[in-house]
Prior knowledge:
The protein is an alpha+beta fold.
Amino acid sequence: MSPSAAVPPGSGEPGGALLALEGVTVRFGGRAALDGVDLAVAAHETVCVLGPSGSGKSTLLRVVAGLQPPDTGRVLLAGADQRGVPPHRRGLGLMFQDHQLFPQRDVAGNVDFGLRVRGAGRAERAARVAELLELVGLPGAGRRAVAALSGGEQQRVALARALAPNPRLLMLDEPFGQLDRGLRERLVTELRALFGRLGTTVLAVTHDQGEAFALADRVVVMRDGRIAQTGTPLEVWRRPADEFVARFLGFDNVVAATVTGTAADTPWGRLPVPAGSPEGARRLLVRPAGVRPAEGAGGLRCTVAGRVFRGHHVAVRLRPDAAGAPPLEAEWPLREAPEEGAEVGVRFAPEEIVVLG
Ligand SMILES: Nc1ncnc2c1ncn2[C@@H]1O[C@H](COP(=O)(O)OP(=O)(O)OP(=O)(O)O)[C@@H](O)[C@H]1O
């Protein structure tokens, strides 16, 4: 079977979503783990759900998988309401954090599990296993013992197993949680390419924004069981919807501001803001790249409180001299980064400033 043949047929209404959640609410006791969630995933799209611990990410996956019935609302797959449809009849592939491989079986025995359950013949299973191991970068590993594999290799086996029955939707729950950063980054890049090639539709959950941004066509940021923002990684990065999303993405330069036209009064002084920004009393985000060294003696006077080498730049923590002004994070090229304790002046670049909604 060629990789393109792995695209599931009929995986979605023409122009419609492969997966749709409509007003889905799940309550545990008095508390809503999901609160009126609407979400659509198009065929061939990779959507990453991102959010802090307890925001409802796993519950969302469990509802789609059929492991948790919604209290209200509907889950539709290719337009069909899934109420009463058991998990194994939903045509989904699941890959969870602890990847739950069968330790007593070899790699092939794990990968062909779903095919065996479906009653596929020995030759068909062997061919499919060989194809999948090739796909996930473990060619010829079928006879190896699962316990003898590295964490990254086990992850690939789990992925091959989830892909084996040709699921119409692949769901990943913290798929790289246990792996070290370098391996995670490599796997994410490989997976993105693989999903693109196969045309797989993917719904993934992670609390790691770097991972989500690298893998997703679209990210969904959750907060307290609701969707705080959805958009392409670039859209969300450029324009976080609110302070919660901005801080979750790791932006700490957020202050109260009064915006009039293309200027904002803030504890850091009067800052330029992009034309067309919402006016009045707002929260304002300055991305670290927008805090620049000022020429001469101008700009907001600050003391360098700390600096961290980040490879392509130095993250500089600044303590403004102005009373009541919160610290500022700046991102400067190596050769421009001042020493700790130095006195510097900074100016602000409007293109890196976002007036939050
Ligand atoms: N079976 C359950 N019984 C009671 N409460 C639950 C149950 N499952 C989840 N919850 C609660 O629902 C909320 C959402 O949980 P969920 O596991 O979906 O969050 P999450 O975003 O996946 O968190 P994490 O990143 O820590 O896995 C939490 O407050 C959690 O305590």
